[in-house]
User: What shape does this take?
Amino acid sequence: MTTVQWYFLCAAVIVIGVIIEFIRYLVNHSRVPRKFRRKKFKFVDNSSFLQMKKHISSKCTPETLKEFSDFIFRKYHGSMIIYADDFDPENPDPYKQNTVYTHRELSDLKGIFLHVIAKSKYISVIQKEEFRRGLINIGVTGIDERPNYELRDGKLKMDKSLNNDEFKRKKVGNDGEQKIRDILEPMKKKNYKIINGLKLINKGERIEIDHLVISHSGVYVFETKAFGISEDGKNQVCRLEIKKDGEWLLHKKTKKNFWYNRGISNPSDQMIRQKKFFNDLFGEMRNKRINLKCALVLANSEITVDQKEQLPFDIVKVSDLEEYLQNRDYTMSDDHIKLILMRIDNHRIN
Assistant: This one.
């Protein structure tokens, strides 16, 4: 064996010895035994959390929310987790137990708040806010900003029990409402508070509003009418005549260019009832200069209006709706708008 080969052999032995000592060090000073080396921790029990999560998701009421809050903030402190401790061969249980909210649990709580509790019509805003602040205190992120609880929309529904003609009329009405919803939607970015399909109750009286718009210039109650819109949702050329005797006539053009007249119900009583309802609802708040406007919105852009009678409400075509809302003087502050939204939310039934 040459000198060079001898040096290489000695170097190899030294390197192998160093590697062996390093492995032995890792084994002796590792916090977990070898068979658990890849499992830094493992979950022991989160079954109670899963059970309560299922319960609140399936039935969200003030009672279930109170029960869920008591569980989350007082009884449950996170999943039972086994953390690795210093390994002792003589100790049959080389782990210590702890409880902590996992990332999955925090994410689940965020989802429950945003998609179940915040959208619930049965839970008051006060309860929602108490629960949100409690979640922030235990480490849930992404909910620091208060949601606009009051601005949830009602759904456009179809009653399957209606006969064929009533079903068609309801569908045309829904198409008209959807057109107005689409027009109002971009205005939310301009700080307009918009609620569609609103149902309210006050002193035993119930009322349904197609669209409610709240801005610094006032409160606007819109009733949508789909006069002249076809069954397939298309606008048809027509003329709305409002006579002095209170009769409303719709003049429509047929495919053969013939005109025919159809009497339609006068919505004046409905509009007056809506205005009276909101005057009673706001009560003492009317002294704070609430500009309340009720308007009939015509969803058909091809309709013309021949108005021969002075009405206690405005008639607005869909093409003029945005301008109707914007050309107003500011009369209400942000705090004032919040009070109005809270008053409305306290009387909602949907």
Remarks:
- Residues 154-346 form one domain.
